[in-house]
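Deviations from the work plan: none for this task. Representative record:
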Amino acid sequence: MEIPYTISTRPDTGLWNAKVGIWLFLASEVMLFGGLFSAYVFLRLDAQPGEWPHGLLNVPVGTMNTAILIMSSVTVVLAWAALKMRRYRTYWWYMLATIMCGIIFLFVKLYYEWPQKFEHYGIFLKPAALEKYEQYLGNNRRTEKGMEPRIEISGHLHNPEALKDSNIKEYEIGLDPVYVDPNNPANDRPHFLYVPPTDHVATIEKEDVARVDSFGPWHSAYFASYFTITGLHGAHVLGGVLVFIYMWLPVSRKVYQRNPEHLANRVEVCGLFWHFVDLVWIFVFPLFYLL
Amino acid sequence: MNNPPDVTQDPKEYEEYAHGIRKHVRGYLMVGAILLTFTAVTVALSYVNFGTQKANIGIAMLVAMIKAGCVAAVFMHLAAEKRLIYRVLIFTGLFVLALFWLTFLAWYNPVVR
Protein backbone atom coordinates (compact mmCIF):
# COMPACT_ATOMS: atom_id res chain seq x y z
CA MET A 1 0.00 0.00 0.00
CA GLU A 2 1.36 3.41 -0.92
CA ILE A 3 1.73 6.00 1.81
CA PRO A 4 -0.47 8.96 0.89
CA TYR A 5 0.63 12.59 0.64
CA THR A 6 4.39 12.03 0.57
CA ILE A 7 4.67 14.24 -2.50
CA SER A 8 1.32 15.86 -3.15
CA THR A 9 -0.26 18.10 -0.53
CA ARG A 10 -3.23 17.17 1.63
CA PRO A 11 -6.21 19.33 0.76
CA ASP A 12 -7.10 20.16 4.37
CA THR A 13 -3.60 21.10 5.63
CA GLY A 14 -2.12 22.33 2.37
CA LEU A 15 1.04 20.40 3.26
CA TRP A 16 2.49 16.97 2.56
CA ASN A 17 2.36 14.76 5.63
CA ALA A 18 6.06 14.48 6.48
CA LYS A 19 6.31 18.25 6.72
CA VAL A 20 3.54 18.39 9.31
CA GLY A 21 5.21 15.49 11.12
CA ILE A 22 8.66 17.07 11.27
CA TRP A 23 7.27 20.38 12.56
CA LEU A 24 5.35 18.61 15.32
CA PHE A 25 8.54 16.73 16.18
CA LEU A 26 10.52 19.99 16.20
CA ALA A 27 7.89 21.51 18.49
CA SER A 28 8.57 18.69 20.98
CA GLU A 29 12.30 19.30 20.55
CA VAL A 30 11.82 22.97 21.39
CA MET A 31 10.18 21.86 24.64
CA LEU A 32 13.04 19.44 25.38
CA PHE A 33 15.82 21.98 24.88
CA GLY A 34 13.63 24.73 26.37
CA GLY A 35 13.45 22.79 29.63
CA LEU A 36 17.22 22.40 29.72
CA PHE A 37 17.87 26.06 28.91
CA SER A 38 15.36 27.01 31.57
CA ALA A 39 17.30 24.88 34.09
CA TYR A 40 20.53 26.53 32.91
CA VAL A 41 19.12 30.03 33.54
CA PHE A 42 17.85 29.01 36.97
CA LEU A 43 21.15 27.39 38.02
CA ARG A 44 23.16 30.33 36.78
CA LEU A 45 21.04 32.95 38.54
CA ASP A 46 21.12 30.92 41.74
CA ALA A 47 24.90 30.35 41.73
CA GLN A 48 26.74 31.75 44.75
CA PRO A 49 29.48 34.35 44.09
CA GLY A 50 32.50 32.74 42.42
CA GLU A 51 30.71 29.45 41.78
CA TRP A 52 29.84 30.03 38.10
CA PRO A 53 33.09 29.67 36.17
CA HIS A 54 34.03 31.78 33.16
CA GLY A 55 36.49 31.22 30.35
CA LEU A 56 37.02 27.50 30.85
CA LEU A 57 36.18 26.52 27.28
CA ASN A 58 38.30 26.93 24.18
CA VAL A 59 36.73 29.87 22.30
CA PRO A 60 38.55 29.50 18.92
CA VAL A 61 37.58 25.81 18.78
CA GLY A 62 33.96 26.62 19.72
CA THR A 63 33.89 29.38 17.07
CA MET A 64 35.25 26.97 14.48
CA ASN A 65 32.59 24.38 15.35
CA THR A 66 29.89 27.06 15.11
CA ALA A 67 31.14 28.04 11.65
CA ILE A 68 31.19 24.36 10.62
CA LEU A 69 27.55 23.91 11.68
CA ILE A 70 26.50 27.08 9.84
CA MET A 71 28.29 25.91 6.69
CA SER A 72 26.55 22.53 6.96
CA SER A 73 23.20 24.32 7.17
CA VAL A 74 24.07 26.11 3.92
CA THR A 75 25.20 22.92 2.18
CA VAL A 76 22.07 20.99 3.16
CA VAL A 77 19.77 23.70 1.81
CA LEU A 78 21.89 23.82 -1.36
CA ALA A 79 21.58 20.03 -1.66
CA TRP A 80 17.80 20.40 -1.50
CA ALA A 81 17.85 23.23 -4.08
CA ALA A 82 20.01 21.02 -6.37
CA LEU A 83 17.34 18.30 -6.20
CA LYS A 84 14.66 20.86 -7.01
CA MET A 85 16.72 21.77 -10.10
CA ARG A 86 17.09 18.05 -10.87
CA ARG A 87 20.85 17.97 -10.50
CA TYR A 88 21.49 14.75 -8.64
CA ARG A 89 25.30 14.89 -8.91
CA THR A 90 25.39 18.37 -7.35
CA TYR A 91 23.04 17.16 -4.62
CA TRP A 92 25.37 14.24 -3.92
CA TRP A 93 28.37 16.52 -3.41
CA TYR A 94 26.51 18.97 -1.19
CA MET A 95 25.18 16.10 0.89
CA LEU A 96 28.72 14.71 1.26
CA ALA A 97 29.90 18.15 2.41
CA THR A 98 27.08 18.24 5.00
CA ILE A 99 28.01 14.80 6.31
CA MET A 100 31.68 15.78 6.55
CA CYS A 101 30.80 18.95 8.48
CA GLY A 102 28.73 16.91 10.96
CA ILE A 103 31.52 14.37 11.41
CA ILE A 104 34.16 17.09 11.94
CA PHE A 105 31.90 18.77 14.53
CA LEU A 106 31.50 15.51 16.45
CA PHE A 107 35.18 14.61 16.12
CA VAL A 108 36.27 17.94 17.61
CA LYS A 109 33.82 17.54 20.47
CA LEU A 110 34.51 13.90 21.32
CA TYR A 111 38.25 13.67 20.66
CA TYR A 112 39.44 17.13 21.59
CA GLU A 113 37.08 19.22 23.71
CA TRP A 114 35.56 16.66 26.06
CA PRO A 115 38.64 14.50 26.89
CA GLN A 116 40.64 17.62 27.74
CA LYS A 117 38.14 18.45 30.49
CA PHE A 118 38.65 15.15 32.29
CA GLU A 119 42.40 15.79 32.61
CA HIS A 120 42.02 19.28 34.03
CA TYR A 121 41.46 19.70 37.77
CA GLY A 122 39.96 22.34 40.00
CA ILE A 123 40.78 22.55 43.70
CA PHE A 124 38.01 24.26 45.70
CA LEU A 125 39.37 25.87 48.84
CA LYS A 126 37.66 26.10 52.21
CA PRO A 127 36.46 29.68 52.89
CA ALA A 128 38.85 29.94 55.87
CA ALA A 129 41.85 29.06 53.67
CA LEU A 130 41.24 31.61 50.92
CA GLU A 131 43.50 34.23 52.55
CA LYS A 132 46.36 31.70 52.81
CA TYR A 133 46.41 31.30 49.02
CA GLU A 134 45.87 34.98 48.24
CA GLN A 135 49.02 35.02 46.07
CA TYR A 136 47.24 32.71 43.63
CA LEU A 137 43.71 34.12 43.97
CA GLY A 138 44.11 37.91 44.05
CA ASN A 139 40.83 38.28 45.93
CA ASN A 140 41.78 41.46 47.80
CA ARG A 141 41.97 43.35 44.52
CA ARG A 142 38.84 41.63 43.19
CA THR A 143 36.86 42.64 46.29
CA GLU A 144 38.03 46.24 45.89
CA LYS A 145 36.90 46.21 42.27
CA GLY A 146 33.51 44.69 43.16
CA MET A 147 34.24 41.43 41.32
CA GLU A 148 33.27 37.93 42.41
CA PRO A 149 35.95 36.16 44.51
CA ARG A 150 37.96 33.21 43.24
CA ILE A 151 37.32 30.11 45.34
CA GLU A 152 39.07 27.56 43.15
CA ILE A 153 42.60 26.99 41.86
CA SER A 154 42.74 25.03 38.63
CA GLY A 155 45.35 23.47 36.39
CA HIS A 156 47.16 20.20 35.70
CA LEU A 157 47.35 17.93 38.75
CA HIS A 158 50.96 16.72 39.02
CA ASN A 159 50.26 14.12 41.72
CA PRO A 160 46.89 12.56 40.88
CA GLU A 161 47.74 9.69 43.25
CA ALA A 162 47.04 12.20 46.06
CA LEU A 163 43.34 11.94 45.20
CA LYS A 164 43.21 8.44 46.67
CA ASP A 165 46.25 8.18 48.92
CA SER A 166 45.44 9.67 52.33
CA ASN A 167 49.14 9.52 53.28
CA ILE A 168 49.88 12.27 50.76
CA LYS A 169 49.04 15.50 52.54
CA GLU A 170 49.12 17.97 49.68
CA TYR A 171 48.23 18.49 46.05
CA GLU A 172 50.77 19.71 43.51
CA ILE A 173 49.10 21.54 40.68
CA GLY A 174 50.58 23.13 37.53
CA LEU A 175 48.68 26.41 37.59
CA ASP A 176 46.48 27.83 34.87
CA PRO A 177 47.97 31.21 33.81
CA VAL A 178 45.35 33.25 35.67
CA TYR A 179 46.58 31.94 39.06
CA VAL A 180 50.22 32.74 38.28
CA ASP A 181 49.44 36.44 37.87
CA PRO A 182 46.03 36.89 39.55
CA ASN A 183 46.27 40.67 39.98
CA ASN A 184 46.91 41.34 36.30
CA PRO A 185 43.80 43.14 34.93
CA ALA A 186 44.31 41.21 31.67
CA ASN A 187 43.23 38.10 33.58
CA ASP A 188 39.93 39.64 34.72
CA ARG A 189 38.31 38.60 31.45
CA PRO A 190 38.78 35.19 29.80
CA HIS A 191 41.45 35.01 27.10
CA PHE A 192 40.44 34.41 23.50
CA LEU A 193 43.21 31.92 22.76
CA TYR A 194 43.55 28.83 24.92
CA VAL A 195 46.61 28.97 27.17
CA PRO A 196 47.61 25.60 28.67
CA PRO A 197 48.58 25.18 32.34
CA THR A 198 51.98 26.66 33.16
CA ASP A 199 55.08 25.03 34.66
CA HIS A 200 54.47 27.04 37.84
CA VAL A 201 53.53 24.41 40.43
CA ALA A 202 51.59 25.36 43.56
CA THR A 203 51.42 23.16 46.64
CA ILE A 204 48.04 23.10 48.33
CA GLU A 205 47.55 21.36 51.63
CA LYS A 206 44.67 18.90 51.77
CA GLU A 207 43.36 20.31 55.04
CA ASP A 208 42.67 23.59 53.20
CA VAL A 209 40.71 21.88 50.46
CA ALA A 210 36.92 21.59 50.36
CA ARG A 211 36.96 19.28 47.31
CA VAL A 212 38.94 18.40 44.17
CA ASP A 213 37.28 17.52 40.90
CA SER A 214 38.21 17.25 37.26
CA PHE A 215 36.25 19.42 34.84
CA GLY A 216 33.62 16.67 34.40
CA PRO A 217 29.88 17.03 34.99
CA TRP A 218 30.52 16.56 38.73
CA HIS A 219 32.70 19.71 38.90
CA SER A 220 29.89 22.29 39.06
CA ALA A 221 26.38 23.16 37.92
CA TYR A 222 28.08 24.87 34.97
CA PHE A 223 29.81 21.71 33.72
CA ALA A 224 26.76 19.58 34.53
CA SER A 225 24.68 21.86 32.27
CA TYR A 226 27.46 21.98 29.66
CA PHE A 227 27.79 18.21 29.34
CA THR A 228 24.02 17.62 29.42
CA ILE A 229 23.17 20.19 26.76
CA THR A 230 26.17 19.67 24.48
CA GLY A 231 25.81 15.89 24.93
CA LEU A 232 22.16 15.95 23.89
CA HIS A 233 23.00 18.33 21.05
CA GLY A 234 25.82 16.01 19.96
CA ALA A 235 23.40 13.08 19.94
CA HIS A 236 21.19 15.11 17.59
CA VAL A 237 24.15 15.85 15.32
CA LEU A 238 24.97 12.12 15.25
CA GLY A 239 21.35 11.26 14.42
CA GLY A 240 21.32 13.84 11.62
CA VAL A 241 24.59 12.56 10.17
CA LEU A 242 23.31 8.96 10.14
CA VAL A 243 20.14 9.99 8.29
CA PHE A 244 22.15 12.09 5.83
CA ILE A 245 24.45 9.13 5.15
CA TYR A 246 21.37 7.06 4.28
CA MET A 247 20.18 9.87 1.99
CA TRP A 248 23.59 9.95 0.33
CA LEU A 249 23.92 6.19 -0.31
CA PRO A 250 22.91 4.66 -3.67
CA VAL A 251 19.41 4.00 -2.32
CA SER A 252 18.74 7.73 -2.72
CA ARG A 253 19.42 7.48 -6.47
CA LYS A 254 16.71 4.84 -6.75
CA VAL A 255 14.22 7.14 -4.99
CA TYR A 256 15.37 9.98 -7.23
CA GLN A 257 14.86 7.94 -10.39
CA ARG A 258 11.41 6.87 -9.25
CA ASN A 259 10.32 10.38 -8.30
CA PRO A 260 12.84 13.20 -7.74
CA GLU A 261 10.32 15.27 -5.81
CA HIS A 262 9.99 12.46 -3.25
CA LEU A 263 13.74 12.62 -2.49
CA ALA A 264 13.61 16.43 -2.42
CA ASN A 265 10.85 16.27 0.20
CA ARG A 266 12.78 13.75 2.27
CA VAL A 267 15.85 15.97 2.18
CA GLU A 268 13.72 18.97 3.11
CA VAL A 269 12.39 17.38 6.33
CA CYS A 270 15.84 16.14 7.31
CA GLY A 271 17.17 19.60 6.49
CA LEU A 272 14.58 21.17 8.79
CA PHE A 273 15.83 18.95 11.61
CA TRP A 274 19.44 19.90 10.81
CA HIS A 275 18.64 23.62 10.82
CA PHE A 276 17.02 23.18 14.22
CA VAL A 277 20.21 21.53 15.50
CA ASP A 278 22.13 24.52 14.15
CA LEU A 279 19.65 26.88 15.77
CA VAL A 280 20.14 25.28 19.21
CA TRP A 281 23.92 25.62 18.86
CA ILE A 282 23.52 29.33 18.06
CA PHE A 283 22.34 29.76 21.68
CA VAL A 284 24.62 27.14 23.24
CA PHE A 285 27.80 28.73 21.89
CA PRO A 286 27.57 32.21 23.51
CA LEU A 287 25.98 30.91 26.75
CA PHE A 288 28.68 28.35 27.51
CA TYR A 289 31.76 29.56 25.67
CA LEU A 290 31.58 33.33 25.88
CA LEU A 291 29.51 34.58 28.82
CA MET B 1 12.06 35.13 1.18
CA ASN B 2 9.46 32.84 -0.33
CA ASN B 3 9.80 29.15 -0.89
CA PRO B 4 10.91 28.17 -4.37
CA PRO B 5 7.86 26.94 -6.31
CA ASP B 6 7.43 23.25 -7.02
CA VAL B 7 9.25 22.11 -10.12
CA THR B 8 7.15 22.38 -13.26
CA GLN B 9 6.53 19.43 -15.54
CA ASP B 10 6.39 21.69 -18.58
CA PRO B 11 9.87 21.84 -20.21
CA LYS B 12 9.13 25.31 -21.61
CA GLU B 13 8.58 26.70 -18.17
CA TYR B 14 11.55 24.84 -16.67
CA GLU B 15 14.17 27.45 -17.60
CA GLU B 16 12.18 30.13 -15.80
CA TYR B 17 11.77 27.82 -12.79
CA ALA B 18 15.50 27.00 -12.63
CA HIS B 19 16.26 30.71 -12.75
CA GLY B 20 13.95 31.22 -9.72
CA ILE B 21 15.75 28.51 -7.76
CA ARG B 22 19.15 29.99 -8.63
CA LYS B 23 17.95 33.29 -7.15
CA HIS B 24 17.07 31.47 -3.93
CA VAL B 25 20.48 29.79 -3.90
CA ARG B 26 22.12 33.21 -3.95
CA GLY B 27 19.92 34.14 -0.97
CA TYR B 28 20.98 31.02 0.95
CA LEU B 29 24.65 31.81 0.36
CA MET B 30 24.12 35.39 1.49
CA VAL B 31 22.40 34.29 4.70
CA GLY B 32 25.24 31.81 5.34
CA ALA B 33 27.75 34.67 5.02
CA ILE B 34 25.63 36.84 7.35
CA LEU B 35 25.52 34.05 9.95
CA LEU B 36 29.30 33.60 9.84
CA THR B 37 29.79 37.36 10.19
CA PHE B 38 27.41 37.52 13.15
CA THR B 39 29.29 34.63 14.80
CA ALA B 40 32.47 36.73 14.62
CA VAL B 41 30.49 39.72 15.96
CA THR B 42 29.22 37.63 18.92
CA VAL B 43 32.77 36.57 19.81
CA ALA B 44 34.11 40.14 19.47
CA LEU B 45 31.29 41.64 21.58
CA SER B 46 31.92 39.14 24.39
CA TYR B 47 35.33 40.80 24.94
CA VAL B 48 33.77 44.27 25.21
CA ASN B 49 32.75 45.30 28.71
CA PHE B 50 29.22 46.72 28.57
CA GLY B 51 29.22 47.61 32.26
CA THR B 52 27.50 44.60 33.76
CA GLN B 53 27.45 40.89 33.03
CA LYS B 54 23.67 41.16 32.48
CA ALA B 55 24.24 43.73 29.71
CA ASN B 56 26.80 41.46 28.02
CA ILE B 57 24.39 38.50 28.21
CA GLY B 58 21.53 40.63 26.83
CA ILE B 59 23.57 41.80 23.84
CA ALA B 60 24.88 38.29 23.08
CA MET B 61 21.32 36.90 23.23
CA LEU B 62 20.10 39.67 20.91
CA VAL B 63 22.71 38.74 18.29
CA ALA B 64 21.87 35.03 18.78
CA MET B 65 18.18 35.78 18.22
CA ILE B 66 18.95 37.65 14.99
CA LYS B 67 20.97 34.65 13.81
CA ALA B 68 18.25 32.21 14.86
CA GLY B 69 15.68 34.37 13.05
CA CYS B 70 17.74 34.19 9.83
CA VAL B 71 17.99 30.39 10.07
CA ALA B 72 14.27 30.00 10.80
CA ALA B 73 13.02 32.49 8.22
CA VAL B 74 15.26 31.57 5.28
CA PHE B 75 16.76 28.11 5.75
CA MET B 76 13.62 26.68 7.39
CA HIS B 77 11.37 28.64 5.01
CA LEU B 78 9.28 30.09 7.83
CA ALA B 79 9.12 33.44 6.03
CA ALA B 80 6.46 31.91 3.80
CA GLU B 81 4.93 28.80 5.30
CA LYS B 82 1.41 27.43 5.59
CA ARG B 83 -0.86 28.62 8.39
CA LEU B 84 -0.89 25.23 10.15
CA ILE B 85 2.86 25.43 10.83
CA TYR B 86 2.53 28.91 12.32
CA ARG B 87 -0.27 27.68 14.57
CA VAL B 88 1.88 24.81 15.84
CA LEU B 89 4.75 27.21 16.50
CA ILE B 90 2.62 29.78 18.33
CA PHE B 91 1.47 27.08 20.74
CA THR B 92 5.04 25.83 21.09
CA GLY B 93 6.19 29.35 21.98
CA LEU B 94 3.46 29.70 24.61
CA PHE B 95 4.31 26.35 26.17
CA VAL B 96 8.02 27.19 26.30
CA LEU B 97 7.24 30.48 28.03
CA ALA B 98 5.09 28.57 30.52
CA LEU B 99 7.98 26.13 31.05
CA PHE B 100 10.39 28.97 31.84
CA TRP B 101 7.80 30.51 34.13
CA LEU B 102 7.35 27.22 36.02
CA THR B 103 11.10 26.97 36.57
CA PHE B 104 11.19 30.52 37.85
CA LEU B 105 8.48 29.67 40.37
CA ALA B 106 11.12 27.58 42.14
CA TRP B 107 12.87 30.88 42.82
CA TYR B 108 10.19 31.64 45.40
CA ASN B 109 10.28 28.19 46.94
CA PRO B 110 11.24 28.68 50.61
CA VAL B 111 12.63 25.13 50.82
CA VAL B 112 15.18 25.79 48.06
CA ARG B 113 15.99 29.38 49.00
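The mean pLDDT of chain B is 82.
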